[in-house]
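Re: [help] complex structure
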Amino acid sequence: MATATLLIHCPDQPGLVNTVTGFILYHGGNILHLDQHVDRGANVFFMRVEWALEGFALNGDAIRNAFAPIAKERQMAWNVHLSEKRRRVALFVTKEGHCLYDLLSRHEAGELPCDLPVIVSNHEHLKPAAERFGIPFVHTPVTATTKAGIEAEHIALMKAHEIDTIVLARYMQIITPGFIEAYPNQIINIHHSFLPAFVGAKPYHQAHERGVKLIGATSHYVTTELDQGPIIDQDVSRVSHRDSATDMVRLGKDLEKIVLSRALLAHLTNRVLVYGNRTVVF
Amino acid sequence: MATATLLIHCPDQPGLVNTVTGFILYHGGNILHLDQHVDRGANVFFMRVEWALEGFALNGDAIRNAFAPIAKERQMAWNVHLSEKRRRVALFVTKEGHCLYDLLSRHEAGELPCDLPVIVSNHEHLKPAAERFGIPFVHTPVTATTKAGIEAEHIALMKAHEIDTIVLARYMQIITPGFIEAYPNQIINIHHSFLPAFVGAKPYHQAHERGVKLIGATSHYVTTELDQGPIIDQDVSRVSHRDSATDMVRLGKDLEKIVLSRALLAHLTNRVLVYGNRTVVF
Amino acid sequence: MATATLLIHCPDQPGLVNTVTGFILYHGGNILHLDQHVDRGANVFFMRVEWALEGFALNGDAIRNAFAPIAKERQMAWNVHLSEKRRRVALFVTKEGHCLYDLLSRHEAGELPCDLPVIVSNHEHLKPAAERFGIPFVHTPVTATTKAGIEAEHIALMKAHEIDTIVLARYMQIITPGFIEAYPNQIINIHHSFLPAFVGAKPYHQAHERGVKLIGATSHYVTTELDQGPIIDQDVSRVSHRDSATDMVRLGKDLEKIVLSRALLAHLTNRVLVYGNRTVVF
Amino acid sequence: MATATLLIHCPDQPGLVNTVTGFILYHGGNILHLDQHVDRGANVFFMRVEWALEGFALNGDAIRNAFAPIAKERQMAWNVHLSEKRRRVALFVTKEGHCLYDLLSRHEAGELPCDLPVIVSNHEHLKPAAERFGIPFVHTPVTATTKAGIEAEHIALMKAHEIDTIVLARYMQIITPGFIEAYPNQIINIHHSFLPAFVGAKPYHQAHERGVKLIGATSHYVTTELDQGPIIDQDVSRVSHRDSATDMVRLGKDLEKIVLSRALLAHLTNRVLVYGNRTVVF
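Output below.
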């Protein structure tokens, strides 16, 4: 079923839900899902509403044009997403394939409403995985000499494939600020710890060293500050003294797969709204 | 802050959210929380909306009178709850005190917005607990001869204390149909298993016998069919071969406390809507 | 590192740990892991001990011959597993590929210490998946006419591939008693519910109908009684009224993958001891 | 049943389990539980063994004297605990009663094998709670002027009550180094975050600010470095954008109660072995 989804945040004020639902009703839309939230501390209103486009009087740009004056009056930050326009996602990987295989098999099973036109990697290890699923694999090695040019190369590649979402599926390179700024809140990373604990390299080894009883994984949008972006999803798994750092790495892979795919699905279904450095996940 | 909460379910149809929010807006209310859900299979619309009463033009009965024609036109099953009217809750117990102490200490800490005018028990074991918290304790022993009269005695007791919610905090007697029918969807039980597994007596022993790796607890509204009422909340805890049935009983107590108190809090804050034999917990 | 693992259960009696560790010590072994458990109710002793074979005086059959008299005297049921002898696992599938892909990618990553010589299916849907990983795929359709012969065909196939463990990775056919008896406690199934709740077909639909707040998955050894075999592992995931039966199916896939792979890993590392209809998972 | 429990750690070497179990067997003991672990990285052996004292030839000090030469030869750090000698636990609280009530009701239900001779607080808020359970309440206010003397006062109080374990059940004062050194690995704290995330004050507010999707609680032994001691147990609970910092405080209370009581029970049953800054929890 073709649907439209409106994501809004604005200063809280009376009549917001009524105004938005009135707009949809007026043009003949039937609401499928509506969720709103008010952050009392910040006095900010958040809303996600999805409606069926069958029988709706407006289409793509006409929806935007008709809604713009309402949004302006209410000082809304807003976006309309049409289910017909599937997102195009680039997967960035290095050597470890667990997240990649998980995403590819979910995609093949129809769980992820997106296209996967390209896989990018700084190593060639996962080229066979890409080939098995018939997805172009681009090898962009990162060395001292190539580092300068890699950002431009990646941006050009994203443009060539009309990418709008980038998933770092255990991509073990720091993303450069220029690339991040070109895709604000569109680059999703999986960090293998329960952030904000164990920022940076080798988090499972840090966790083992500290003697924690739970390990975690965190999926977040990438910002220019390392591992500090808005968190989309997290989960944890119990460990004990019996688990070496190597065991934690193995157990953590399951967390990483699940947390990353949940975060990506929330993103693809327009359920994530970023506000400041936090997310509202409807 | 004084608020009103409207719980609605009705056949799905266009304009429902707009109509309800229009009603609130028209009388000067500011929406604090709104949540809706449509069960596509059954084509039923569910909604919970809570708004501030400060500045709202109507009060208690006037709200009901003003909303009734709208509800009738839309074939709504509905209820309005005012935060000022605290629920009056009777706690039924037998011998085990973990749920009772948990509820009493939460109540004392201000976590449960209700009054606790009476504790009822078929044994005297927990009388000291009631006395410590200054709550009247009524001992209604259930024997072969008293059984017939106990239903009438309990109903009279509930009326005398103006009770509207009954919590079976590990009350180990079967509730009679007459009592259940007098309090539809107002009697909350905690069953010490992950329903529908292990219905009936000694569920932890059943669980141990079956060799499960997780034990559970389930809080549900009581219906005339044993352990079959609408589920409000559930949770589980990991066990292993090291845990005897006795260990499971001990571990299960923590589940029971938490699941029962979560279910009660959801009930007291008007977040539970029963539909058929299921709940929508907003 | 080459190791041997001894799994024992017998009537509890003084000196068991001392006797077994004395045997290992006497022949020059260094214990890596030792775990024991006594079921007080049944007065049964369980033990798993793993030791390094480097410097150990005995090898394969010699270990068995040397230990047999000790075992006989103590009335032990026992087994020795050598890490050098990798298990050979057949995967049975039908149409859904999530468990298959998960196991194949774990195997490729070196997480599962076993060989995967053959994939068997009653449909051809997952043939491409098998081919991508270079594993022979045998299509044995089950129809009214072939049903009689399929058991013999499967047993012959298992023998031809020297299979010792069979994983039903969402194989949607009932396994026949003759096949089950040929592989006692060697056939691992994943059932898509929290057993013993929702035995049989369409458990997620049953779960949705009942209105549960958690869904589960259970991995167990297959016995001739449907979904009643010894449970190896279970897990659950939270759901709400927002989740349709279809959503539960999707969420359940993640549970199934993880629970099945954990159970298989426990089996492959000789950590599962079946006793009666329960397991001790060390 | 009267039992003895031996906790050991020492350099790993062949024959350790055999030696210890030989000692118990020789004197007529029957092992109830045995668990061992080897940290391969550090080459350290850990063991907990509990045996029935009925029929055992030695008692309290005689056990220690007989075992000492064995321990010396093997360079063991070790301890023997007798179940007959119940630990004496002091509870330190401030204003919040949820952990206190939880521990008191568990103790009354017989879940905690210890004596509770005294409750200490820097405020008088929880005096009524102590009185309800008939436990002496000592008010030791901490002010700029009393601070210097409070350590001596507390140590004297612990000695007067023959305390061997101190539980900080949401005691909101920094413990002084002199007190900590007097009770090494005997002071158990509950910190209301998933350490090492959110060390220090107001962790739920820090968690809310960071936008995490899970909150946690951590129970650990107190060392002189704030919130850095060996972790005994941890757990987490899911939160969302709907949860304000105040909601997190409320949800966190359930975590704190459960994690603290689990840690205390592990300590009281001699299942915690501290090594470096980590714990082995058998």
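The mean pLDDT of chain C is 95.
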